[in-house]
Amino acid sequence: MQDPICLITGATEGIGKATALELARKGFKVVLAARDPSKAEAVRREVDLLPGVPAADVIAADLASLDETRALAETFAHRYPRLDVLINNAGVFVPARTETGDGFDTITQVNYLSHFLLTQLLQSALEKSEQGRIINLSSRVYAFGRFDARTLRRETKSSVFRSYAASKLFMLMFTRALAERLAGTRVTANAVDPGIVRTRMMRRAPGAFRVLAYLSLPVSVSPARGAVTSVYLASSPDVAGVSGRLFARSRPIATRNAFDTAENRARLWDISVEAVHDVVAGAARRAG
What we know:
Layout lengths: L4 E5 L4 H12 L3 E6 L2 H12 L8 E4 L5 H14 L5 E4 L17 H22 L4 E6 L22 H23 L4 E6 L7 H4 L4 H8 L7 H4 L1 H8 L10 E3 L2 E3 L8 H26 L1
Helix pairs in contact: 3-4, 3-10, 4-5, 4-10, 5-10
């Protein structure tokens, strides 16, 4: 039986690294997508030291660039015949609002928009799997997120906390919209709330949010504990036919955000397609 192939973004530390190590132990061929090649190589070597696991691989890509995100998908498709699991894990929480070279809010692009693009570009690879799985990292702060169509049209500027909460809401809304579009295929899409996890991003949260992060330490969990639900969704036969749900502690949970409506999910999808259109069109031209 062929080793299942899993591509994980943001796999050099925190939940992403813990997920990669545990899936490797379960026999997955782990492909580490990361902005820092040296950190990714260090994780690859750590994976390869595990006894009896498939060799890991690294693809360098900065999700703050839509072109690098496209190149990530093209490199993966060139190296591998299919994709069994895509874990859209990478995320940032920067101290102050910044914009990427593509002109989007950095948090919005890295946490959501580039993952939207990556998923579109890798959908055909996922459809070649016997049962492709897409796992999107959300967060319980999605409950504080607001859907504002202007965010992805570069018509408004938000605080870093509002951008972060919105990006996690977008990931949840994207998951549900994607699951509807994948109905009838062999590919599923689910979202994860990993809980309050002790990560470098948490410790580097800006301003008052750093204080909140330290106050939450008594109820926080290790990256290994935070990775449990992602590993479960990637590997368990119990969720082979489950799609469009938010999971926490390896169980589906109800979602609560007034902005998460069918109408807003459709609008978010259309605006996201518009935002990445030029990159997708260029990839299609090169493939043709």
